[in-house]
Every structure is written in C-alpha cells, then in structure tokens.
Amino acid sequence: MKYGYMNYRKHFLPNRCERPMNLGDPIQSLAVLELYKRLGIAEAEIVPLDRYDLTDYAGHDVIVLINGPETYEHFAYATRFLPVSSKIHPVFISLHLHRELSENELSTLRQNQPIGCRDEYTVRYLQSKGIDAFLTGCLTMLFDKREAKQQDKVFLVDCSASVMEHIPDSIKKDAVVLSQVIRMTTKAPDHRLTLAETEEYNKTAEAQLNRYRDEAKLVVTSRLHVASPCAAMGIPVVLVRDTYDERYQFIDRFLPLYYPEELDRLDWEHLSACIPEKIKVTLIHIAKSMLDMAKYRLELKDIYAPKSREIVFANEEELAVQKFPMNCQDSFAYCIWGVCLPNSYLLYEQMQRQYPNARLLYAIDTYATGTYKDNIRIIHPDEIEKLVNRNTWILVVAPAAHGAAKEKLSGKYPFALIKGVDCRIYEKK
To answer: What is this structure's pTM?
Structure first.
C-alpha cells in the first residue's frame, strides 16, 4: 500500500520565470511526513504527488492525506486540485478552503466525508453544503518537542513595520530577521518547478524549520506556519499581525493573537510555547483511524473487483411486473390483493416506476383494515364486486389467496397471480 503527500511543484506565469514562494507550503508536507513516521509507515511506502495536478493523476492507487489550503490560485496558474483522480483515495485533514467550490468539486468531499478542517470558517462552509466536517486545526502542530539545549537567538519572521515599532530594542538587538517567503526561478519550459527545483524548495523549508528548532529562544512572527510548528517544538512564540483572517481560527486556542500595540504591555521575560501534547495525540489517533478506513475500503474494492461473469440483477417484483400485457404509458386502474405481505409494497413501487400513469384504486386483504400506501383504502375481498370496476386489474401477491382469487375473479376481471417471478396473467373474457 502506498501513502502519498502533496508536493508543491509550483507554477509560474507564462511570461515570467520567477515568483515568490511561501515556505509554509512545504512545511505542511513535512508535517504529513512527520505523521506517517509516527504511524510507522515505511519510507518506501511514501510517495510525493503533485499538489497542483491531483485531478489528472494516473498512477497506481494511492492513499493521500490532503491538508493545506485551496484558494483561487488556480485562476492565476494552471492548477487542478479537485475533484481528485479515481486513483487517489483521499483523506482530508487540516483542509482550508477560501473559495466557492463547484458541485463537481464538492462531490469529492461528499464521497470522502467526514472532512477534517483547519479552521472554523471551512467547517461552517462545508456544513452549509451538507458535508460532515469537523475542526482539526493544522497538522503543523504535530512536530516533536525539541530537546532542551542552549538556544539563544531571537528570530523576527515577516514582522511588518508597525510590528517592529512595538518590539523592545532589547529584543530587536542582535535578532535574526528572516522571511518565510523566498523567490525562486525555473528553467522548465512548462512554467512550473522541475522536480529538482521542487526538492530544493522543500529542503529550504526544512532547513529553515530546523534552524528555528536548533537556535531559537524566541520567535516573533506574523506567519501561521512559523508560529504553529515552532510552538509545537516548544519554542516560545509571539504571533502578531495587523489583521487576522479565518485561517487563524484554531491556533487562537493555544497562542494569543496579538496586535502590534499590544506588544507594549507584553511580559517578554515570561513567554512559553502553548501547543499541548494532548492535541498531538488526538490528531494522530484521528489520522490513523481515517487512513485505516481508506486502506480497508481500498482492500474491499480489490477483493470485490474480480467477477466470474456479468449478471443482470433485478428483484422478483420487477421481473413479474415486466410480464404484464399493458404498455408502460397506459393509464389504467389496479388493486393489490395481499397487503399484509412486504412484497406488496415492493410491487407497488415497481408499478409506480414501470407504469407511471397507472392508479392504485384499492388494496385488498382478508385480515387487514384501514389504509395502505398513500392513504389507499383497504377493502375485504367480498367488497370487490360492489366497489371495483370490471376493467380494473387485480394483482394478487398473497399465494394463499390465489385459489380464492381465481374463483372470484375469473371471467369478471383482468388479474394476475404473482408468486416470486412467476406471474400468471388472466385477462377478462
């Protein structure tokens, strides 16, 4: 069994071979690899899949944990994320949506619900579409807590000018200023990163993450995918922005969301990381159960794939009704005799399907009283001649009543004696 993770082989505009790229994307892939490692999935069973072309994947069947965002990037670049290929068996955890999905795209999510969502906004959106969705937060919270060392550097990562104004000089002094956004170029003729360039992108993200782990005593950042993994690794984090959008509607349970002016009142000497180990354990259990379900469903699909020969399947009532002499569009009245039996209801359903213009006049039964389906009156067999027109078909589904029905109806009514697929037709003389 192969397990996939999303590889961010980025696209470029046709007239440009350079663009900015956020290291947060491959960090999300590193989080999936971290999860697979914790679940004991062998490295040989793990494969990268092109995040931007999941629709056209045509390789071997693969279970793919799909996390990360789906926004309007496909309008600028030639990306195809949903619906996923039939060869991909998706497990959606930590999904963020920031656009309206088409019905075709939503169908992939409906077929693979429940959907684990990164933020409350995505949960509400999917639930409004009738999809079972729940909040997981981001898988970047799964990184291991680092070993205690003498880390002594402050990292300021993508802090705006307004944020920098409110950081004390004692913190800014000797701080390392970094960005989570890098610029990359490509030489590929198809306007997307080559596999080698993508690997370079991934390694850059991993190296920066490792640098935080090994060197940071404090990280001040506006970036979600700096704050979340750093806090998971036990690094004190100050998450500060001028504005917050719905992507942050999970991490506010674990980290304070600061605005620049609030830094003036911050106790910089007593900061701590706040991603509890309990959320990691819970996420791992959820991911394991969802991945196992995808695995077992795929195994069942393989088991049931071989067929000795093709059989046309139909229930007995469907085959019996096909023997009636009426045309499918004919308008006629009929009665069903034997409504105490469950197959009378199946017969009624088949009559509705195959003879949509036919009308059930009465239900007939020796023992039942009251009403039948759709408030149809139940009458006793002795009431037939008084209430039922002689052109009305009477369909007898109770085998025990066949003898009495034949004696009562012969020559007077068109009728059918039905037992399983056996249907004997008696037209009125």
So the answer is: 0.77
